Amino acid sequence: MSIEKAIQLSNQAVSFLESKSFEEAILSSCAAMEVFQQSRHMAEQLLSHHEGNDFIDQCIIGQDKSSSDQTIMDEFIYEHGIVLPMNTFDATVITPVLIFNCALSYQLAARHCDDHGTHRIALLERAASLYQVVYNGQDQELNTIFKCAILNNVGVIHKMLGRSEAAKACFDYLVSIMMTYVAADNSKYLRLVQGFWNNVLGNGRETAPAA
Residue 20 and residue 33: Cα distance in Å, rounded? Predict the structure, then answer.
């Protein structure tokens, strides 16, 4: 089934990210989106099979990968791709995860890119546009960890591109979301997002535009 092939390719991209093979991750994640798009008619028939709740967050929690405090250029990037179970059939889950993994591939490729000129900027712009597509499609009440990861990573991109106001807007909203976890004392979730505070607390720093 093409949907299963798309998930397989996306999960393969996550493996490439873990081994820091970023170009391969881009190719695999882009192929995953293309395969899924080709089977879109089938995916639309599966929309009635809606997982609901916080299924993407459940996948993130299930991977049990805490964010670390290790940063590059004083910025924390949520760098864990999301692995989907092969029996996932909800297009409202598959679509955002495939796009997120692709966006992350572009962003991490940019972070490790030797060329700090136009190629790096193009990678960052592509990542930002993909993250935006994912975020705009999310339910306001669901998958909060997932949305935190997107907001954080987009904020980092804006800072790297010298868009300080846009970065501040991302991090300010990220604070409002994260404070709900602090108020609830939900350590399970805080462990997963604790690295975001590096950016939130430093959102007032000026960042030079990418050359």
Answer: 20
**Mean pLDDT in residue range 39-60:** 70
pLDDT digits (tens, 9 = 90+) for 78-103: 999 999 999 988 888 999 999 999 99
| Verdict on whether the full-model pTM lies above 0.90 | no
Q: Which of 148, 94, 104 is nearest to 13 (CA)?
A: 104
d(CA 86, CA 144): 23
Q: In what helix (H) or strand (E) does residue 51 lie, and over which residues does it extend?
A: none
Q: Rounded to whole angstroms, how far apart are CA atoms 9 and 32?
A: 5
List, in order, residues 6 or more apart from 64 with CB less than 8 Å away.
Answer: none
Across 183-187, average pLDDT: 65
Q: Are 153 and 135 in contact (CB under 8 A)?
A: no
Query: What is the separation, in whole angstroms, between the first and last Cα of the chain?
Result: 44
* Single-letter amino acid, residue 187: S
